[in-house]
């Protein structure tokens, strides 16, 4: 059985994938797919083969309108005028596929995804391709941020397909899956160029859909058989499984997690999972790792045990080493504040330029914790810059936080953020330019696309200041008016799109970040912003019976909330209670946790499903336990349950926390580094359990 990990984690191939039967195997041979190396695993790197100038888009007729026109998702509305007859995911589209006995083309993406935009411009506005799709397929478009359940299922099926077919391809977005009329996957990929030869000899999407239609018409039984196999293995990956351990996770699991992260740690540039041989393997901030490490650092500081003290020092060094290098690199927006989604290289130099709310919410907590642990003012500055950016550019008038800012503007990734030396010289005085160039690397050759600069620090600002005979605060004071001047210049450019939908769970992460920063940096305005957002979510994204909804946009809240929405909102409310002492946040957190237990709890094995018990029926009811770019709902829930148990004296919550940890015992034993937030919560659970044991009466002989 294959273990499918979180983004960026290793994939092992098991005996289940030694062969793949007829139809899809022949289809692979016929289509040839993409040449090796075109997309990196995960679809993260922008490969050199794709950096050629994009072909001009074929303009869609102005009057073309499909079934997405009434949607309030920005991503779906961006495709509402494609000639492709897109439909939103739902009963109507799925019923139509069954009635007409047509395969489904499922395209999943999100509004800030650069290659999603590229595929639309190249392919989905092409009238010939659209006509063929409309005739032979039912075309469904999904916003993965609105429907993470659908995305998880079909992304998992793509990973399984890649291993069954031994194609060597990874996952990523846009996700392009082909399904039988009953929504079972049988073939898939990520980005496809429109036509043969458009991208370094890659097979074009138009050829692909014709080959799929040819096989479907000639022998649909084979495709159905392959789809059944692919669906069966996908369900095995996604279905809840019983605990693999008879012994519950203990303190040894915490040590094993620290060792796993130390093994993956990059001692030279910070961060985790890197390759000495290939510096262009992308790096993600992985805030869940940082939260765990700061927890271990605090435990070491408070412990009389020398081993735990040493582990705490090791954890602190990894956490601060990562924060330092992220803060220096181009992944940080040195002009406007905040952080881009990830770096396309080991060194944090060149980012993928989209800005996601979930990253910035978690990094606000991480940098605030870094400041609390070290007193390093650079961490406080990074936190303030991040939150000031967020409040300026990603906050609705009502106080909720927007989902994302696009990676591209004017059809070019990073155009909003990049600079030429000539532009910088023309916008600054000679003295200002000389200082900026020395500090942010403009004295060096261009670092982005051979002619532009993504501004970054070659070394910590404190070291640059020392070399100039200044204190860091003095150098910052000199740089601040230069940064403000460049921000004003940048604000005159065409801005990337902002996806203004408000997602419950992502707002919960941001509420936590603001509450942590407000408490640890003693900034009341951040607490006020967190409270305003919490009030909005509790008012606009909660139904009369208390249940949460997923998404709020265009004045309408819709879609069942997921486990992460409940867990992250509870976490944010608990952070607000800790920071302000106001009882109303604790009361609201308790009510939402009670609902979460009612709707998502797994009565058989413990822990939580990702979807509620009355959610629409999909291929599988998923139960994910690993922490990716966003932590697992179960991981955060353990922390929430322990906190509520302590603050409200609710021992039943502590029992649920233990059951949730035990349900993840197999993962924690085999891959403890895959779920650092769960292990962080385990450490807190063990502390509270130990305190309870001391209070327990001595048993009778």
Automatic annotation (TrEMBL):
One GO term (biological process): carbohydrate metabolic process
Gene3D superfamilies: 1.50.10.10, Glutaredoxin
Spermatogenesis-associated protein 20-like TRX domain sequence ranges: 65-231
InterPro entries named among the record's database cross-references: 6-hairpin_glycosidase_sf, 6hp_glycosidase-like_sf, Ssp411, Ssp411-like_TRX, Thioredoxin-like_sf
Pfam families, alphabetized: Thioredox_DsbH
SUPFAM superfamilies: Six-hairpin glycosidases, Thioredoxin-like
Protein name as annotated: Spermatogenesis-associated protein 20-like TRX domain-containing protein
């Amino acid at each position: 059985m294959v273990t499918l990990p979180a983004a960026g984690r290793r994939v092992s191939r098991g005996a289940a994938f030694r062969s793949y039967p007829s139809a899809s195997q022949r289809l692979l041979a016929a289509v040839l797919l993409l040449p090796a190396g075109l997309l990196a695993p995960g679809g993260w790197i922008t490969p050199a083969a794709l950096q050629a100038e994009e072909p001009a888009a074929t303009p869609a007729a102005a009057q073309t309108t499909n079934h997405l026109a009434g949607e309030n998702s920005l991503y779906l509305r961006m495709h509402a005028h494609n000639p492709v007859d897109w439909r939103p995911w739902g009963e109507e589209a799925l019923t139509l596929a069954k009635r007409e006995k047509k395969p489904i083309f499922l395209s999943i993406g999100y509004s800030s995804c650069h290659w999603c935009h590229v595929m639309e411009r190249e392919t989905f506005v092409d009238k010939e391709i659209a006509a063929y799709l409309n005739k032979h397929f039912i075309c469904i478009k999904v916003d993965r941020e609105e429907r993470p359940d659908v995305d998880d299922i079909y992304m998992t099926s793509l990973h399984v397909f890649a291993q069954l077919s031994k194609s060597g391809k990874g996952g990523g977005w846009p996700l392009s899956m082909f399904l039988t009329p009953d929504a079972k996957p049988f073939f898939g990929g990520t980005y496809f160029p429109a036509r043969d030869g458009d991208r370094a000899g890659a097979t074009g999407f138009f050829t692909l859909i014709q080959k799929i239609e040819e096989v479907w018409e000639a022998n649909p039984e084979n495709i159905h058989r392959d789809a059944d196999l692919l669906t069966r293995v996908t369900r095995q990956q996604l279905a809840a499984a019983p605990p693999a351990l008879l012994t519950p996770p203990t303190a040894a699991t915490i040590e094993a997690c620290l060792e796993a992260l130390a093994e993956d740690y990059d001692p030279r540039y910070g961060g985790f999972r890197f390759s000495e041989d290939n510096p262009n393997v992308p790096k993600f901030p992985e805030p869940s790792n940082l939260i765990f490490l700061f927890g271990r650092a605090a435990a070491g500081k408070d412990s009389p045990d020398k081993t735990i003290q040493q582990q705490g020092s090791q954890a602190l060094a990894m956490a601060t080493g990562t924060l330092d290098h992220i803060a220096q690199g181009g992944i940080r927006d040195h002009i406007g504040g905040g952080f881009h989604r990830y770096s396309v290289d080991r060194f944090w130099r060149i980012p993928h330029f989209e800005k996601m709310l979930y990253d910035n919410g978690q990094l606000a907590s991480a940098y605030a914790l870094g400041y609390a642990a070290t007193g390093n003012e650079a961490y406080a500055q990074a936190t303030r810059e991040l939150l000031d950016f967020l409040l300026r550019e990603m906050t609705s008038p009502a106080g909720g936080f927007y989902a994302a800012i696009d990676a591209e503007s004017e059809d070019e990734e990073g155009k909003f953020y990049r600079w030429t030396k000539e532009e910088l010289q023309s916008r600054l005085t000679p003295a200002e330019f000389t200082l900026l160039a020395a500090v942010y690397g403009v004295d060096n050759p261009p670092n982005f696309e051979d002619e532009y600069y993504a501004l970054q620090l070659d070394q910590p600002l404190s070291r640059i200041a020392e070399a100039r005979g200044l204190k860091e605060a003095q150098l910052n004071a000199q740089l601040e008016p230069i940064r403000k001047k460049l921000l004003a210049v940048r604000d005159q450019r065409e801005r990337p799109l902002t996806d203004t939908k408000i997602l419950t769970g992502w707002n919960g992460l941001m509420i936590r970040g603001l509450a942590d920063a407000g408490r640890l940096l003693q900034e009341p305005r951040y607490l006020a912003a967190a409270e305003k957002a919490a009030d909005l979510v509790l008012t606009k994204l909660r139904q009369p019976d208390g249940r949460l909804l997923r998404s709020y946009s265009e004045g309408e809240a819709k879609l069942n909330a997921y486990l992460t929405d409940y867990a992250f909102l509870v976490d944010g409310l608990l952070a607000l209670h800790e920071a302000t002492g106001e009882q109303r946040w604790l009361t609201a957190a308790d009510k939402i946790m009670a609902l979460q237990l009612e709707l998502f709890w797994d009565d058989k094995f413990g822990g939580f499903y990702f979807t509620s018990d009355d959610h629409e029926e999909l291929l599988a009811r998923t139960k994910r336990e690993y922490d990716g770019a966003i932590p697992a709902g179960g991981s955060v829930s353990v922390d929430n349950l322990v906190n509520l148990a302590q603050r409200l004296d609710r021992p039943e919550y502590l029992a649920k926390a233990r059951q949730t940890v035990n349900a993840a015992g197999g993962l924690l034993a085999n891959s403890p580094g895959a779920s650092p937030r769960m292990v962080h919560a385990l450490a807190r659970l063990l502390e509270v359990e130990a305190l309870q044991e001391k209070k327990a009466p001595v048993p009778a002989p």
